[in-house]
Design a protein that fits this description.
Bound molecules: ligand 48F
Order of helices and strands: HEHEEHEEHEEEHEHHEEHH
Radius of gyration: 18 Å
Oligomer: single chain
Strand content: 25-35%
Distance between the termini: 50 Å
Number of helices: 9
Largest sheet: 8 strands, mixed
Shape: globular
Helix content: 25-40%
C-alpha cells in the first residue's frame, strides 16, 4: 500500500539532505545555459564541489529552442565539447550543426554525471562579500520572487561564483551596483547588436574574473564587456564555459 505521507516524507528528507550537504561548496554557477553547464562539467570532472542554481524549473537556458524555435544549433568552433558529451555533430562546409534538444539534454546529463548538482527553481538574488571578495550566493525560491512575496533569502558559501546568466548578467549587475567592478571601466558596458563572427570571438576573450571571486562566462561576458550578441551559434558559449572552468581551477 502506498501511504501518501511517505511520498511527502521522502521528498522533504531527501531535498533537505542534499541542500544541507551543499551549504559550503567550491563553485556556485548561476544559470544552467550552455556556458554554465559546460563550466559545471569541467569543474566537477576535476573533483570540485559544484552547484548550478537555475531560476527556471528546466535547465538549458536559451539552447532548447535553437534558432527561431527550429531545434537546430550551429557551431563554428568548439564542436568537440558537444561530442565529448555524446552529442551527434554533423559537418556542413565550415560549420557543424546539432540538435538543440539533444545538446541541452547531454550537456546537462554529462555535468550531473561528472558530479555537479543542479538546484532548479532557485534564483540567486545577491552575493556575499567579505574583505572585498565574493564568497557566496544569496538564494531564494523563484516562485517566491515571482509572487512578489516579502520573504528573506538564505545564503551558500562558495570559493568562486560564476555568472552564467546570459544576456542579463544578473549577478554582475548586483555587484556593479554595490561595489563597482574590477574591469578597466569598472562598469557594465552593455551588449551590442548582432554580429556572430565578432560575438563568438569576444565571448571567449571576455570570459574571466570581473570582481575578486566573481567570474563571468557566456553571453553575460559579452554584456559586461560591451561586445555583440551572436544569435543561435553556440561554440563561443561552450568554449567560454570551458575557459572559465580552467580559470577558476587555477585559483582554487
Ligand atoms: O541565456 P542562457 O542560455 O546563457 P548562456 O549560457 O547562453 C546564451 C545562449 O543561450 C544564447 C546565445 C547564444 O549565442 O546568445 O542566448 O550565456 O542561460 C542563462 C540561464 O541563467 C538563468 C536563466 O533562467 C537561464 O536558464 N538565470 C538568469 N538569472 C538567474 C538565473 C538568477 N538570478 N538565478 C538563477 N538563474
Amino acid at each position: 500500500m502506498i501511504r501518501d505521507i511517505d511520498i511527502t516524507c521522502l521528498i522533504v528528507e531527501e531535498f533537505n539532505r542534499e541542500f544541507l550537504d551543499n551549504l559550503q561548496i567550491d563553485v556556485a554557477i548561476v544559470g544552467a545555459g550552455p556556458s554554465g553547464l559546460t563550466a559545471a562539467r569541467y569543474l566537477a570532472e576535476k573533483g570540485k564541489k559544484v552547484v548550478i542554481f537555475e531560476r527556471k524549473i528546466s535547465p538549458g537556458g536559451g539552447m532548447w529552442g535553437g534558432g527561431i524555435g527550429y531545434p537546430v544549433i550551429v557551431i563554428k568552433q568548439g564542436h568537440e565539447i558537444l561530442e565529448e558529451a555524446g552529442v551527434k555533430c554533423i559537418k556542413k562546409d565550415e560549420y557543424w550543426i546539432a540538435n538543440s534538444v539533444e545538446s541541452v539534454a547531454k550537456l546537462l546529463s554529462s555535468a550531473i554525471d561528472a558530479g555537479a548538482r543542479v538546484f532548479n527553481g532557485m534564483s540567486v538574488e545577491d552575493v556575499m562579500v567579505r574583505d572585498g571578495r565574493v564568497c557566496g550566493v544569496v538564494i531564494n525560491w523563484s516562485a517566491i520572487l515571482t509572487a512578489g512575496l516579502h520573504v528573506d533569502p538564505v545564503s551558500i558559501e562558495a570559493k568562486a561564483v560564476i555568472d552564467a546568466t546570459g544576456h542579463d548578467c544578473n549577478i554582475v549587475k548586483v555587484v556593479e551596483k554595490k561595489y563597482g567592478l574590477s574591469t578597466p571601466t569598472g562598469k557594465i558596458e552593455g551588449e551590442k547588436a548582432m554580429w556572430a563572427d565578432e560575438g563568438e570571438r569576444k565571448t571567449v576573450e571576455n570570459t574571466g574574473e570581473v570582481f575578486p571571486g566573481l567570474y563571468v562566462t557566456g553571453m553575460a561576458a559579452n554584456a559586461v564587456h560591451g561586445s555583440p550578441r551572436m544569435g543561435p551559434i553556440f561554440g563561443g558559449m561552450l568554449l567560454s564555459g570551458k575557459k572559465v572552468a580552467e580559470m577558476v581551477m587555477e585559483k582554487l
